[in-house]
Structures are given as structure tokens and as C-alpha cells.
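Holo prediction — magnesium ion.
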Amino acid sequence: MFGRWTGAGEGPGEDLVVVRRGADDLEIHCHGGLAASEAVIASLEQFGAARQVWPAWLRAGGTPEIEVEAREALAIAGGPKAVRLLSRQLAGGLEAEIVRAKALLADGRVAEARVALDRLGRAARVGLRLTRPWRVVVAGSVNAGKSSLVNALAGHARSIVSSEPGTTRDLLETRVVLDGWEIDLVDTAGLREEGGDDAAIGVEQAGIARAVAAREEADLVLRVVDGRQVGMTSSAAVSNRELLVASKADLLEGAVHPVETSGVVWTSATSGAGVAALAAEIVRRLVPEEAQEPGLLDGGVPFTERQVALVEGLRGR
Ligand SMILES: Nc1nc2c(ncn2[C@@H]2O[C@H](COP(=O)(O)OP(=O)(O)OP(=O)(O)O)[C@@H](O)[C@H]2O)c(=O)[nH]1
Ligand SMILES: [Mg+2]
């Protein structure tokens, strides 16, 4: 039916189309924009209707829980890899594997079920991160070239760069997509190693405190060292959550070594050399599963705590 919705009678009303989809199922189509739909909903509420958020609406309509969760996650996920992974779960990837594992258990084929459930358990680490970008903190001494590297990775001049030590004061986040993964790069205030951090005063000191705190919460810390000083940095002091990055390779005479042999990623923000290799290395460190177990993320992947608990429960049987 086409007609004019006048609600409680105020205003000119709203032209709309009402479609009966079933005995107790009506669709109301109105003009675009939020104002028209909001006015229609408000008037329906006056007549006793209850407003529902969409996940509750889907659940009430009998949509399977994993599908609702996948739609909720897709609404906030970023980066093509997370979206592709979640789309597969929406299409039934995880559901199918859970059904299969349950059937195996019912058949007494416990070992086979275990293999499938263990795989789901290993995939869950990445699955649980699909709606929250990885966090990479860029740290190091003042003037090491941290902001220049962030800009090189982001492909635009996000952070202010200058030869003045102590240029970056606060944490500055830049969301980037590297090799399909969404990542927040966090530029920080440099540490003043030589004169001690006492050389920094006031706001810079506060910035350094924030930099230290940010490192604690990072998935990965890029420890940026001026290439001319790399020899003075002991790689033994680099934790497995850290990646040693040498900057300003263009100022160096002689060869730079590949990361496989030196453990150091050599880069030049000025020439762009090594920046793509750095991006690849960041992803390799954040999502080692991709290289270590190809195919792990191609099948069912649990992506909520509820799903992980469900898999754990089956594994315990
Ligand atoms: N030649 C050369 N110079 C660079 C490179 N990267 C950075 N620089 C220079 O090094 C200086 C410091 O660079 P920034 O990126 O501001 O360094 P930062 O680590 O962010 O410094 P703070 O924020 O002060 O801690 C600037 O003068 C840059 O132009 C590089 O790859 N090659
Ligand atoms: Mg800086």
C-alpha cells in the first residue's frame, strides 16, 4: 500500500510504502535519511511498538547465533583480511566445523574430533582480534626517525618530522592496512638516552611517560635506532615483542644485511628503501600463523569468547 503516514497528526506526514511480507510481518519503506525513519518509528512507539537494536531483532527472528555474531563483528571490522575471514564464518564455515566435530564425538571418533577442535583453538587467537586492530608502538631515542617511519608506512605526512630532538610529544595514532591487516601505528615521544630523560622537561617528560605505558600494551614494539648507531645496540636486549629497526640507511656507507641474518630491519624513510620489507616483517610478527601454518585461517575460525568456550567445551569431552 502506498500512502501518507500522519502518525499522531502533527506535521505534513510522510509518504511511504507498506508491504505485507507475512501474516505478522510488515515492512515500511520511507524516504532516505534518518529524520523520516526516526519520525515513523517514534510514532509507532507512541502506539505501543518496541524499538529493537538489529542484533536482538535478528535473534528474535531465529537467525543462528554465529551468524548474528558475524554480522555484528563485520559491522566494526576493518581491513580486507578480517572482513574476508568473518564473511566466511557468516557463510557457515565455523558452524560446519562445529557440527562435524559434534558428529565425530557422537560416533566415538574422539581423536579425529580433537584434531579439528585443536585447529579451531589455534585459529582463535587471530579470530578474537578481528574487530580490534593490532597495535604497533614505534619507540626509540629522540631523533631516531620514528615519525618519518610512521609517515613512510602510512604513505602520507601524518606525524610532524623535524631535526629538533623531542618533536613528538604525545602519542599519535595512525590507522593503516598492511598486507590486508588493520593496524594502529602509535608514534611516541623519543627517549633521551644520552643526557638521560632528565634533559626532557614538562610536557615532553609527560610524553615520555605515555610512550613507556604505550609499549606495555603493544602487540609489537618497533625499536627504531639510527642506522649509524645500530652497532651500539645489543640485540640481546630486544624482547620477542620487539622488532629492531635501523633507520636512515641512506646515510650509511656499505651494505645493510637482510633481516634473516641480522635480526634488524634496515630502512630509509627518505628513499623508501626497506619500508615494504618492514611492513611485511611487522605482519609476519603480528600474525605468525599465516606463515607457520598456511591454511589455518582458511577454514572455520572462532571469533568471540562464546565460540571459544564452545570449542573448549567440546574439546574437554
Ligand atoms: N637522511 C635521512 N634522514 C632521516 C630519515 N628519517 C628521518 N630523518 C631525519 O631525522 C630527523 C628526525 O626525524 P623524525 O622522524 O622527526 O624523528 P623522531 O624519532 O620522530 O624524533 P622525535 O619525535 O624528536 O623523538 C629529521 O631531520 C628527519 O628528516 C632517513 O631515512 N634518512
Ligand atoms: Mg617524532
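READOUT: Residues 146-147, 159, 167-168, 187 surround magnesium ion (ligand 2) (CB under 6 Å).
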